[in-house]
Design goal:
Layout lengths: L12 H8 L4 E2 L1 E7 L2 E7 L3 E4 L4 E7 L5 H4 L5 E5 L5 H8 L11 E3 L5 E3 L4 E13 L2 E13 L6 E4 L2 E4 L3
């Protein structure tokens, strides 16, 4: 077992990032159509929060240029990416280019945007935003959902995308 390193008040962000990356997470796309434009981002911080009321959360960097656009939407779509979505995950995480090029999407009447072939889909509205260091914890109220539990998910671990082994 490794020896714990005290990080103090000014931690080395590369060490923190490497250590945080030891915890595998799913990957989700948070997307909406805003003023006729497809807007979206990839997140690895998606998690369930509450059954009653039905809440999920994502953590968004305060320096995000995408979140200010997405938060204007009346509803956002959350698509839990499948193992076949590694290219989509890279595109949606990119800071340049058309994030939706070549991706098949659907949009609900409320403007929530989803990726086809996702493991799970959620249509949500913003419930609350909570400041947390250099991020914002966004609590989303689930309005509608769908699940494909037999579809293998995309996993993020060690700063790379992976598939679950059988």
């Amino acid at each position: 077992m490794s020896t714990l390193e005290t990080i103090g008040s000014d931690p080395d962000t590369s060490t923190l990032r490497r250590t945080f990356g030891c915890f595998p997470t799913g990957v989700a796309a948070v997307c909406a159509e805003v003023d006729g434009e497809q807007v979206g981002m990839a997140v690895s911080s998606f998690t369930s929060v509450s059954l009653s009321p039905p809440l999920v959360s994502v953590c968004i960097g305060k320096d995000s240029s995408t979140w200010p656009k997405l938060r204007q939407a009346s509803a956002v779509g959350v698509s839990v990416l499948s193992a076949t979505h590694d290219l989509a995950g890279r595109q949606l995480a990119s800071r340049t280019g058309n994030r939706f090029e070549g991706l098949t999407t659907t949009t609900t009447e409320s403007g929530a945007l989803h990726l086809e072939d996702a493991v799970a889909l959620f249509e949500c509205r913003i419930h609350e935003e909570v400041p947390a260091g250099d991020h914002i914890i966004v609590l989303l109220r689930v309005l509608a959902l769908a699940a494909q539990p037999l579809t293998p998910p995309l996993v993020f671990h060690g700063s790379r995308f992976h598939q679950l082994a059988a």
